[in-house]
Amino acid sequence: MTEIAIALGGGGIRGIAHIGALQRLEEEGYQIRAIAGTSAGGIVGAVYAAGYSPSEICELIKNVDHNNLFLRNPNDGPSLLGLKGLSEILMKAVGNRKFDDLDIPFACTAVDIVSSQEVVLSQGYVVEALLATSAFPGIFPPQDIGDTILVDGGVLDPVPVALAHYLRPDLPVVAICLSPSAEGWSQINPLKIPEKSPIPRPLIEQFSKLRVTQAFNIFAKSMDITSRMMTELRLNIDKPDVLIRPDVIQYGLIDDVDPYELVKIGDHAVKDALDEIRQSFSIKNTISRRFKKRYLPGKVLPIENGFEES
How many CB atoms lie within 10 A of CB 149? Predict the structure, then answer.
């Protein structure tokens, strides 16, 4: 038996490492039968579930126009950057497909800041869901869907293990986490505006000296610490069968990167974990999964309206 479910965690541009992980799993003969994703993990997971191979996803990324990636739409909510470029890429890749149209069962998470609750996005239009799960608070605009205002799922569920287990409780869950364990937290690079930002560099430098900006930086760093702690707590509670942490600590959330370097890192991380993945199919672990409680980590929010480009 080589069927698995996977949980792909958030991490901004570091999510490219997920592509290498998927590629190595394929090469080792593992069949992915369910995907749960948050933020960047949701994006990679959805495109893969739509039928793209890891190499085809790499090609999509290689052809991205970085000058337009973080542009804002006129109707975007409060945020430093926009998701106009990302939405255009997703529309080309996924179009107006619904979750039921995907080749592999897929779901992602977001957080409703109106109700302060996690929501599960697994019904309706995929692109709208991906923009919601990727809406990193303060950096990218929140998404208004029905009576909710949705932000990045990583606020409450950085690596959606429980959701992956819910989708396929009979299979081992391989979780790929893009943040390091606690001993590596001091080495994480601070969040910074990418070189190819739509905001002019002189304006950024001037803005960075303002007291309100410095206050925001302190707030953002504090939230990042909270997010990392939330990751550890959720992993400890939900306990994936296999936990893989690609060594992407040197990359920031929105850095300009060589995607192939991140792909290699993801590939190597899975390669190093192959013995543990094989062990997850043991009789002991198989029996243990049968008695493990599964739960849906949030209310399912159907997305009735497809994405409309501005």
Answer: 18
- SS3 (DSSP) at 301: coil
- Contact call for residues 15 and 178 (beta carbons, < 8 A): yes
CB atoms within 10 A of CB 164: 31
Q: How far apart are CA 234 and CA 214, in angstroms?
A: 30
- pLDDT, residue 85, reads 86
d(CA 126, CA 204): 34
Interior angle at CA 60, CA 51 and CA 62, nearest 5: 150
Structure tokens that stand for 182 in this block: 């606690």
Neighbours of 211 (CB within 10 A): 7
The pLDDT assigned to 250 comes to: 83
Token pair, residue 159, equals: 């690596």
* Low-confidence stretches of the chain (pLDDT beneath 70): 1, 182-214, 216-217, 219-220, 253-256, 306-310
All residues at 6 or more sequence positions from 64 whose CB lies less than 8 Å from its CB, including other chains: 85, 89
Tell me the pLDDT tens digit for each residue of 233-274: 999 999 999 999 999 988 876 666 788 999 999 999 999 999
Handedness of CA 121, 126, 132, 135 (dihedral sign): positive
CA–CA gap between residue 214 and residue 40 (Å, rounded): 27
Residues 6+ apart with CB under 8 A from 285: 172, 241, 279
The residue among 121, 188, 133, 132 whose CA lies nearest residue 158 is 133
- How many other CB atoms sit within 10 Å of the CB of residue 66? 12
Q: What is the pTM of this model?
A: 0.89
Residue 6's pLDDT is: 98
